[in-house]
Design a protein that fits this description.
This protein has one domain. It has 9 helices and no strands. Helix 1 packs across helix 7. The chain is globular, with a radius of gyration of 17 Å.
Length: 182
C-alpha cells in the first residue's frame, strides 16, 4: 500500500497508525453506505450497521497474514502491494461460501451483504493502483478513481432492489421478528 498521487485518500507509510484508523473508518462507512437500504428497513438497524461497518475492514486481515506480523508499518509496506485475496474472484468465492453455508431464508441477503461490502472495499483500494482486482487473470492493476463513487452508488442501488424484494408487504408477515420493520 503506497501513496498514489491521483487518489489522495490513501495510506501514508510514514504514519501507519493514522493510515490504519483512516482505512477502518472509510471502509466501515463505505460498507454501511452500500447496505444502507437494507439497514434502514431492518428492525435492528444498529446491529446491521455495526456488522456492515466491521465487515468493511475485515478483508484487510489478509495484510496481517501476508506480513506475518501485527506491525502496522509492515502491513503498510508489503512487498508487491496488497495480497492476492484483495481480488474480485476472492470476494465472489467468499460470497458463494456465505450463500451455501448461511442457514435459513436470509442467505441471499447475507451473501449480497458480503459481496457488496467487500466489493466496496475493493473499489476504494483499487483506485490506489497496485491492486490485484482481477487476480488470477491479470497482474497488479488499478481503476480510475471515479469508479469508486460510481460503484458504491451502484451497489447501494442494488441493495435497494434487494431490500424491496425482501421487505415486500406479502413477505413481512412471514419474516423473523428480528428482521421485521417497525
Amino acid at each position: 500500500m503506497s501513496p498514489y498521487p491521483a487518489w489522495p485518500f490513501l495510506s501514508d507509510p510514514q504514519h501507519p497508525f493514522l493510515s490504519a484508523v483512516w482505512a477502518v473508518l472509510i471502509h466501515g462507512v463505505l460498507g454501511v453506505f452500500v447496505l444502507a437500504p437494507l439497514i434502514w428497513r431492518a428492525r435492528h438497524r444498529a446491529s446491521w450497521a455495526a456488522c456492515a461497518f466491521a465487515g468493511g475492514s475485515i478483508l484487510d486481515v489478509d495484510h496481517f497474514i501476508a506480513a506475518g506480523s501485527l506491525s502496522l508499518h509492515r502491513i503498510e509496506t508489503l512487498p508487491g502491494g496488497r495480497p492476492d485475496t484483495h481480488s474480485l474472484a476472492f470476494v465472489l468465492l467468499l460470497s458463494l461460501v456465505v450463500l451455501v453455508l448461511w442457514p435459513g431464508r436470509w442467505k441471499l441477503a447475507a451473501a449480497w451483504s458480503c459481496f457488496a461490502v467487500n466489493t466496496g472495499h475493493l473499489l476504494f483500494d483499487g483506485a490506489g493502483a497496485n491492486e490485484h482486482l482481477l487476480y488470477p487473470w491479470t497482474g497488479s492493476d488499478g481503476i480510475p478513481w471515479l469508479l469508486c463513487p460510481i460503484g458504491a452508488v451502484a451497489l447501494c442501488a442494488a441493495s435497494e432492489l434487494l431490500a424491496r424484494h425482501i421487505y415486500a408487504p406479502n413477505r413481512i408477515s412471514r419474516m423473523p421478528a428480528a428482521m421485521a420493520p417497525r
